[in-house]
Write a structure and sequence with these properties.
The structure is a single chain. The chain has 203 residues and is of the alpha+beta class. The protein contains 5 helices and 6 strands; from the N terminus they run H-E-E-H-H-H-H-E-E-E-E. It has a 4-stranded antiparallel beta sheet, covered by helices on one side. Strands 1-2 form a two-stranded antiparallel sheet. Helix 2 packs antiparallel against helix 3. It is rod-shaped. It starts with a helix and ends with a strand.
């Protein structure tokens, strides 16, 4: 009879231990499930979608260093586009130059002033010449700061009777500045200079 009670007591302890283990396991699993649920909700709320052409496209955030080469190349391309894309219209020239000079320091302003004093823009207007540029490549050195760049581009001077094609090579450095509507990439070109501006095809 005592042996029977002893077996019952042992069985009860085993059931009690197993029950406690099961309860602890359930609490841990429930806690983990709740944690993962909150994490998934936070992750879902952190996503940003951009509506483009009627389609929702997910946007991903990244550190600036991951895209710095892409941003610098686009900054250099936009500066050269605004500085060298001109029409025979004084307001267009002033607008484009204003946009270009927001992306560079006094070295670009000095080049603009020199061209204006030489009557370059007046000649474009009087001769009805349009000027366009296509950036072929931008070489970068991101191992030094300010960042060095060399831009290779093709420039076209379009007249009513002919088109002059020029090879343009410029270089300069970029330093970080605050982003703004006028300077979305947050770089400023400094020590900008033209290395080559020679005709490729003559009229």
């Amino acid at each position: 009879m005592f042996t029977q009670f002893k077996n019952i007591d042992t069985a009860f302890r085993h059931i009690k231990t197993f029950s406690l283990f099961l309860i602890v396991a359930c609490i841990l699993v429930s806690g983990f499930a709740i944690y993962k649920s909150f994490e998934m909700v936070r992750s879902a709320n952190a996503k940003i979608y951009i509506l483009a052409n009627g389609k929702a496209i997910e946007a991903f955030s990244a550190e600036r260093k991951d895209n710095i080469g892409v941003e610098i190349r686009d900054h250099v391309k936009m500066f050269h586009h605004w500085f060298f894309t001109l029409d025979p219209d004084e307001k267009v020239i002033q607008r484009n130059m204003g946009l270009a000079l927001n992306l560079a320091d006094q070295s670009a302003k000095k080049s603009y002033d020199n061209l204006r004093e030489q009557g370059y823009f007046t000649n474009l207007i009087s001769a009805n010449i349009s000027q366009e540029i296509s950036v072929d490549s931008v070489e970068l050195n991101l191992d030094v700061y300010p960042y060095y760049f060399k831009c290779h581009a093709t420039q076209q001077l379009i007249r009513s009777t002919s088109t002059v094609v020029r090879r343009l090579v410029t270089q300069g450095y970029l330093r970080n500045v605050s982003r703004s509507d006028n300077n979305p990439h947050g770089f400023l070109i400094q020590r900008w200079e033209t290395l080559e501006n020679a005709d490729v095809v003559k009229p």
